[in-house]
Amino acid sequence: MDPTLIVVLAVLGVLVLAAIMMYNSLVSKRVETQNAYSQIDVQLKRRYDLIPNLVETVKGYASHEKETLERVIQARNAAMNAQGVAEKSAAENQLTGTLKTLFALSEAYPDLKANENFKSLQEELSATENRIGFSRQHYNDVVGQYNTALQRFPANIVGGMFGFRPAEFFQLDPAEAAAVRQAPKVKF
């Protein structure tokens, strides 16, 4: 056998193996990204299940705050029906805002604030909000790793050949993001 042919076949074999390894790596990162997104869904489901109980508890004490309670339920339903990362992110930001309004009601109603069921639900929802935050952070970390791997050479060629697309980040509402980025003002 011709030595040049052996070298060419060896180089082709190495290139094929490298392409297979890049493809498998991209598949693993894409699956990890999908898994991280499903973990957000698990925590959001938990949140959605807690909200009706919280609203029912508040109804007994603040029945004339019907508009606030309806906004919370509407925001919950919109968040549950949202599709895709961008739409779900926007709907979740809206829901977070309405929940803040609901918790503000407890300040106006001391009996509600003292209610053990309300306090328990509020603590449970607060813990769930923390879990959601951690899940979003993990998802964004995994998306960053996946997107970086997808953009690196030569993986970008392999990814392009097999239809890999960058994943979307879970983002804050632009108004909320601007407020978060500003330095807090301390007054004495």
Q: In percent terms, what proportion of residues is strand?
A: under 5%
- Describe the biggest sheet? none
Runs in which pLDDT lies below 50 for 5 or more consecutive residues are: none
SSE string, helices as H and strands as E: HHHHHHH
Helicity range: over 70%
Separation, N- and C-terminal Cα atoms: 87 Å
Under CATH, the topology can be stated as de novo design (two linked rop proteins)
Helix segment tally: 7
Q: What's the alpha carbon Rg, rounded to whole Å?
A: 24 Å
CATH homologous superfamily placement: LemA-like domain
| Average predicted local confidence, pLDDT | 85
Strand element count: 0
The count of domains is: 1
- SSE-based structural type: mainly alpha
CATH class: Mainly Alpha
CATH 2nd-level architecture: Up-down Bundle
What is the overall silhouette? rod-shaped
Description:
The mean pLDDT is 85. The longest helix is centred in the N-terminal third of the chain and has 59 residues, at 3-61. 83% of the residues lie in helices and 0% in strands. The protein is rod-shaped and about 90 Å long. The protein has helices spanning 3-61, 66-81, 84-108, 110-114, 116-151, 155-161, 174-181. The chain has seven helices and no strands. Helix 1 (3-61) runs antiparallel to helix 5 (116-151). It has a single domain (22-181), classed as LemA-like domain (de novo design (two linked rop proteins), Up-down Bundle). The protein has 188 residues and is an all-alpha fold.
